Write the structure tokens for this entry.
Amino acid sequence: MTLRIRVEGAGVAAWTAAALLARRGCAVNVHAECGAQERIVAVPAKTVALFEDCLGVAIEAMTPSRWVEKRCVAWEGRDLTGIPARALVCDASALAEALRVHFIDEMDASLEHEWVLCAKGRTRGDTVVEAGVRRAVVGRMEIPDGFPNEAMVVAATPGGWIFAVVRPDGDLAVVSIDPSIELVAETVLRESVDFLWPGFGAQVLVLGAGTAAPSFDRTCATQGRIALGDNALALDPLRGDGIGFAVRGALLAQAVLGAIASDGAIEARLDYYRDRLSHVFLGHVRGCAAHYEAAWNEPIWRREIVLMRSVLRRIPMDNKFRFRLIGKELRST
Ligand SMILES: Cc1cc2nc3c(=O)[nH]c(=O)nc-3n(C[C@H](O)[C@H](O)[C@H](O)COP(=O)(O)OP(=O)(O)OC[C@H]3O[C@@H](n4cnc5c(N)ncnc54)[C@H](O)[C@@H]3O)c2cc1C
């Protein structure tokens, strides 16, 4: 059976799923509305390899990017400890656009669809569980003297966490994660920057702000509709490998649809998809809670930690799965 699928979204999850489904022989139509803000991301080397494995593309050749070799963390104060962590720094929207250009010929533009893949980015609503209310503020600034250009820097500041990395086009990308949604975004980002580089007096250009708590849509797979990427499960940018999850989620969604196309059995596959994502969500929230508890300025994170712990108590963790993703296919266990 050939499935007719409409993919909604314009990010990495949407284009990865569309490309994989088209290769599978499904008829695919993508409805993309591009409007995402500039978002500089560090994509771990294992995720870069995953793009090569599942799509056959070298993403460092597709979009302006640069490699960093270390993650330097300051859990307290300004002393950074470096650990090896290879990652490719690029703009997530530019990467998605490069995937679109690469795969556009494989799309069928006019189609009566029977399935919708929803990859429209973070969402809210009654069915979405949010493990906190924290916020990410994104900005750019000049590179301070002595900044370790070959590293990404993550530091705890009195107001939250700050993440900094040199952008592919020069300048520094900065993101602060703070628990104080009532404060002015610009003030929070500036105070974190001033704490980490006292006296530098950088002009910080704020590019945007949005929610950063992990979230999961419990209705991410229903008859005729599968949500993927951030639309189904969004990770905390501080710990997460959101791009990696977008690719893995696309891989899983197309495998679920491939299995459905092969024998028409739907419910068990959709149940598996929801349970699998729920499992990933709970594992991620557990890791986040431990991360925030270990922070030097842990008191400012109390409310977030309580919210994360309550999500972990409320949602049962299922460890037994009837299926497994092997390569690009779903197999019974
Ligand atoms: C501040 C911040 C920093 C991050 N840092 C990292 C990092 O360092 N490393 C990492 O791996 N991940 C990081 N992430 C996470 C990562 O960016 C996301 O997880 C990833 O981009 C999700 O991809 P996606 O395709 O699901 O969604 P998105 O990238 O959000 O794409 C969704 C797309 O759908 C489009 N759209 C919206 N509505 C519609 C509609 N109605 N119809 C059609 N299209 C629509 C939007 O315009 C957008 O282009 C970060 C996230 C944030 C917020």
Remarks:
- Residues 4-131+213-332 form a domain with the FAD/NAD(P)-binding domain fold (CATH 3.50.50.60).
- The longest strand covers residues 81-91.
- The pocket of flavin-adenine dinucleotide is lined by residues 8-14, 31-36, 39, 41-43, 92, 119-121, 136, 138, 175, 210, 212, 229-231, 237, 240-244, 246 (CB under 6 Å).
